[in-house]
Design a protein that fits this description.
There is one protein chain. Helices cover 5% and strands 43% of the residues. A five-stranded antiparallel β-sheet has the order 4-3-2-1-5, with no helix packed on it.
Length: 76
């Protein structure tokens, strides 16, 4: 394939540990993977510590655990 697809670069459930970040709908978040520094916006906050995130600079979007070690809050 050409480059990495979103699921390869943004694994939703790998490395989920630590304290959940405090987000609401519209919060901006940063994905801090060395091969994929990207920002996204929270579209939905779900029960159980998950949020639906839409990434800005590629097609990826989906549900991610808010305690993921690669997920950082940019602005609430």
């Amino acid at each position: 394939g050409e480059g990495m697809s979103a699921p390869e670069v943004l694994p939703p459930f790998v490395g989920a540990q630590g304290d959940p970040i405090d987000v609401r709908v519209g919060s901006l978040v940063q994905w801090t993977h060395p091969n994929c520094q990207t920002q996204g916006v929270i579209l939905k906050v779900k029960p159980g510590g998950y949020a639906h995130i839409r990434w800005f600079d590629h097609e990826g979007h989906g549900e991610y655990p808010l305690n993921h070690t690669l997920l950082k809050l940019v602005s609430k």
